[in-house]
């Protein structure tokens, strides 16, 4: 195979994306990875709890980002020719993926094994988590001399595995693989006989036998053992001590400093480029780190045109999409409206308030009516072994470009003015586009698009790169689709204001 210059560039971006995924096993790590990309390009971090007019000097040609909960991030650039009330070109995506999360009280043993209690997060294909090398990552709160500091944890070692039952003991496993998600989807972490902490703590104490009980009230029936009494206060008593010690060692702290954590399991096998011609990406979390990476890279590469831009260019990457977006920092929160409202009150024109209308006059509604949201989430590429599951005329191919997602029942927010816009954006970047609708006899997923569209009244289009095995622990995407989506976003940021003025809807 002869590799052209274009292919070399595409493979370079694909490898950058693979590295991004490998550094981002959780939403906290994904946001941290995005922050590093932005900081390297001179973006300034701003903080929600600060007074922006006093603490920062937001100005034209500026590059900024703000986070919420460490797992959602909004970044934006202000055009050199921006005027108060002009619109915003937004790309929205999500940082989370379906996974297993460690329960608040995870300490368990069974048949001589140390096991870890986990909770299902989102709509994962659960059977794909069996017989995989799993590890642990997330956010850990550490006590540093009275300051409770969040630290990112990613243990680069296979720690856990959810073993299947041998076929000799389950002859129907190849025709019917059914299991209870509470009792069978439980990872093993070690053996009690070989664990020094289990040996030390395995003996029954007076507390576990019922002695030394603490009364919750005067009612003699409401009593706790010592272990139960300390279960919320003491993180070590809630989890396997060897796991806590491993976390502490990884973070270079004492176990007693660990106050609490939010940890999830991830596939320890790395994301890689594969296929006979390097055409595939075999990876966890393609849904939706692909959109996060492409949006960030597209925003960064559009900066060269910033002095001539008349609008604001923005990416908005949210946590909790996989579970409905209803949280303080999900797409259904106040995060994006809050940031737009604060930008609406900044006097970017540097003229007196009476002349500009800035300060006392809020440009929020004018800005929203002139803005547009590209809701970017992964799409279903045609599966060679299950072609019957797809609508006959809408069968997107991996490596053939981003997919416009359409649904008459508004599970996607796409409509014709949005399609006209994205077609013109794609034409300028020479990016091919595809179309997708689900079969009438098939359910349709949804995205942050309809949610933000109804919440803000902002015009929206849903699209995303095609992939196979969505919500599996290992998904398959196209190597050459990464650069296509990035180029589409770059063109969108650079051309939105000009194209929007030519696509009439409610305005003349």
TrEMBL record:
Catalytic reaction list: Release of an N-terminal aspartate or glutamate from a peptide, with a preference for aspartate
Span list, region Disordered: 196-218
Pfam families: Peptidase_M18 (PF02127)
GO cellular component: fungal-type vacuole
A biological process term (GO) from this entry: proteolysis
Top-level enzyme category: hydrolase
Superkingdom per UniProt: Eukaryota
Keywords: Aminopeptidase, Hydrolase, Metal-binding, Metalloprotease, Protease, Zinc
MF annotations from Gene Ontology: metalloaminopeptidase activity; zinc ion binding
EC number: 3.4.11.21
Cofactor section: Zn(2+)
Family: Belongs to the peptidase M18 family.
PANTHER family, alphabetized: ASPARTYL AMINOPEPTIDASE (PTHR28570)
Protein name, UniProt field: aspartyl aminopeptidase
Lineage: Eukaryota, Fungi, Dikarya, Ascomycota, Saccharomycotina
């Amino acid at each position: 195979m002869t590799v052209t210059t274009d292919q070399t560039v595409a493979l370079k971006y694909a490898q950058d994306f693979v590295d991004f995924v490998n550094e981002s096993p959780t939403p906290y790590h994904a946001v941290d990875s995005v922050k590093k990309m932005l900081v390297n390009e001179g973006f300034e971090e701003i903080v929600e709890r600060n007074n922006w007019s006093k603490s920062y000097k937001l100005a034209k040609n500026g590059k900024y980002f703000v986070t919420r909960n460490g797992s959602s991030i909004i970044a934006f650039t202000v055009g050199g020719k921006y005027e108060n009330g002009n619109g915003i070109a937004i790309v929205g995506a999500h940082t989370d993926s379906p996974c297993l999360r460690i329960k608040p009280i995870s300490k368990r043993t069974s048949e001589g094994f140390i096991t870890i209690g986990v909770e299902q997060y989102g709509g994962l294909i659960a059977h794909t988590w069996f017989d995989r090398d799993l590890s642990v990552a997330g956010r850990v709160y550490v006590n540093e001399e009275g300051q409770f500091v969040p630290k990112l944890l990613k243990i680069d070692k296979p720690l856990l595995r959810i073993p299947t039952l041998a076929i000799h003991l389950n002859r129907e496993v190849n025709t019917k693989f059914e299991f209870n998600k509470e009792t069978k989807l439980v990872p093993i972490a070690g053996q009690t006989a070989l664990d020094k902490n289990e040996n030390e703590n395995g003996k029954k104490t007076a507390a576990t036998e019922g002695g030394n009980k603490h009364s919750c009230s005067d009612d003699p029936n409401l009593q706790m053992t010592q272990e139960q009494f300390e279960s919320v206060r003491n993180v070590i008593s809630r989890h396997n001590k060897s796991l806590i010690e491993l976390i502490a060692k990884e973070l270079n702290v004492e176990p007693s400093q660990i106050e609490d954590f939010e940890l999830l399991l991830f596939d320890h096998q790395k994301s890689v480029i594969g296929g006979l011609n390097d055409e595939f990406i075999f990876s966890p979390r393609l849904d939706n780190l692909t959109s996060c990476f492409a949006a960030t890279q597209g925003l960064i590469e559009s900066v060269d045109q910033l002095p001539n831009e008349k609008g604001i260019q923005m990416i908005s990457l949210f946590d909790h999409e996989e579970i409905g977006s209803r949280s303080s920092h999900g797409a259904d929160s106040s995060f994006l409206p809050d940031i737009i409202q604060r930008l609406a009150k900044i006097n970017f024109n540097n003229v007196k308030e009476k002349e500009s209308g800035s300060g006392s006059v809020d440009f929020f509604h004018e800005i929203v009516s002139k803005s547009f949201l590209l809701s970017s989430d992964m799409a279903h590429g045609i599966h060679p072994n299950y072609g019957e599951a797809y609508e006959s005329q809408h069968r997107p191919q991996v490596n053939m470009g981003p997919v416009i997602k359409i649904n008459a029942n508004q599970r996607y927010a796409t409509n014709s003015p949005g399609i006209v816009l994205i077609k013109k954006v794609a034409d300028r970047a020479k990016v091919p586009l595809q179309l997708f609708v689900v079969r009438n006899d098939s359910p349709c997923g949804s995205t942050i698009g309809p949610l933000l569209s109804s919440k803000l009244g902002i015009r929206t289009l849903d699209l995303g790169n095609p992939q196979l095995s969505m919500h599996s622990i290992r998904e398959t995407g196209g190597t050459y689709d990464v650069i296509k989506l990035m180029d589409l976003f770059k063109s969108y940021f650079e051309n939105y204001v000009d194209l929007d003025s030519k696509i009439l809807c409610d305005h003349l």
